Model the fold of this input.
Amino acid sequence: MEFYKFSIENPESFWGFQANIIPWFKTWEKVLEKNHPFYRWFVGGQLNASYVCLDQHAEGNKKDKVAYYWENELGEKEVVSYYDLYCKVNSFSKFLMDIGVKEGDMVLIYMPMVIDAIVAMLATARLGATHNVVFSGFSKNAIIDRIEDSKAKYIITATHTYRRGKRIDLLSTIREIENEKIEKVVVLDRDGSFTEGGKYIKWPQNKNFEYVAPVHVESTHPLFVLYTSGTTGKPKGIVHSTGGYLVYVACTLKWTFNVGEDSTWWCTADIGWITGHSYVVYAPLALGITSFIYEGAPDYPDPSKWWSLVEKYRITEFFTSPTAIRMFMKYDPEYIKKHDLGSLRALGSVGEPINPEVWEWYYKNIGNSRCPIIDTWWQTETGGFMIAPFMGIIPLRPGFASLPLPGILADVVDEQGNSLPPNTKGYLVIKAPWPGMMMGILNDDEKYKQVYWSKYEGMYYPGDYALRGEEGYFQLLGRADEVIKIAGHRLGTTEIESAILENDFVAEAAVVGVPDEVRGETIAAFVTLKQGVNKDESLKQTIISKVREIIGPVAVFSSIFFVDKLPKTRSGKIMRRLLKAIMLGKELGDVTTLEEEASVEEIKKAYEELKQSIG
Ligand code: PRX
Done:
């Protein structure tokens, strides 16, 4: 508690001291530069992320320590020490340098969960370039948007990945993109199926070690851009710094899971998400610990897969999403019981609210009632954990992410920004800057100000509902805006609606998130068709395919309703609240602002009909 109090009362000396968790080439001149709402950390300091993650260990006493164990569905394995990884990254940096990548360039990475994906990220950072990782489950259009917005000149990809026994081609998706601004595409050939030609070049394997001096970048140099969905339009490019970000992720991993020399850490997130960036790549490497990563589905070929890996690699800290846990809850617990999970010491949760029932199940069945559940609340924008149990916080409360971490000043406020008393639902806000915070939205300072800093004067608004329990513990209650979370992945309603509108037979579309037993939420869509188009059931499949093509398979639908009109306010805004109420079977409440009540009746009718048709 004293530690927390000090951190809040003396943020600059607190963070100035914590920043020594990583090595710097040059010490900062200023811990924090405030130009509200643009905050810059460790200004004047210089460092390099790949040096922080590799050189300091490879040149020191962790040379032979395992950095990653890797395995895939086929049972193929790879083990790399810190020195091995250092050699791979140096050699690949040299190769990137030779093809023209330099400081300030943007490199798009579209790779599966393999060690080479991490090599690609670190080699990019070594040269002072910025990476933009696109989740390998995203489709062509998502990649095109990101290339255009981020002005990427290089792509690093692989021929394919495997999922549930199927070979999934990645290169063919990249080949469909015709963008003359892309200068080179580097391809990791995993099965000899690739032939070089034009801008497509092969990732060189078994190259001799070649040292590349890490570029000394400013603390505020953008380490990466990662796109995430918001309430409006296309995903936003969230820009993260190098210095503040690395300090923050390293501190937060240490403070929560208390990982150490003897840890074998497994964070199940894909590198395509912020959790993968922060807690698969940067934090564990900065701390010099051993991680395990897996390329494959959790329950393939059967639901014992993950647990067999926990046993085999003697995983000590395990970090996953409530969606994954809910999926396992549906299976026979025998799948778990046949494996010895005795190596586990702590269990983590991220991405969505973990309801008490799921918390208890995780605690008992995976942790054998002896591992704390570290529920971590945070966002792509926050860089690292914000509200999570600091080591040793006792007692943990099922369903509560517990208290803000040191240096984090969180509160729950009403519409006017006044602090709310205990047990009252309100909006979560963060009242002081922290080093892991984003630097902004790429190419859009106005949006950055408007989305995160305009609801309340001087407070960061994350867009989540929360309440504080009696002891000040925070419970997260889901999104307060129009963001849908499917299996922990963020999709904006507008983004999905625009994709539906790409079908030329669709006139209008509105989507809402509906609760789903496993995925947390899925999409319910209300669609009006153009005049003369028949409400043919087969069009629903066409819509789904189109959305998958544009956004990717993460966009999962629970239902699509064809309606004659959408319920709108008098000003023409679609009333999603009402659609949601219908989907949840709630009272409609006040519908007086609706343009025409008849359309509500139609939706209700359509809903009733659908309920009947599915029994
Ligand atoms: O609504 C919150 C939810 O996920 C959002 C952030 O999503 P994203 O940027 O994709 O990052 C996911 C990984 C950090 C938040 O605004 N969220 C995240 N963690 C939790 C959570 N909701 C409840 N409990 C959590 N532990």
Notes: The longest strand covers residues 506-516. Residues 228, 274-275, 349-353, 375-380, 401, 462-464, 476, 479, 490 surround adenosine-5'-monophosphate-propyl ester (CB under 6 Å). The CA atoms of residues 175 and 326 lie 37 Å apart. The chain has two domains: 2-297+376-467, 483-614.
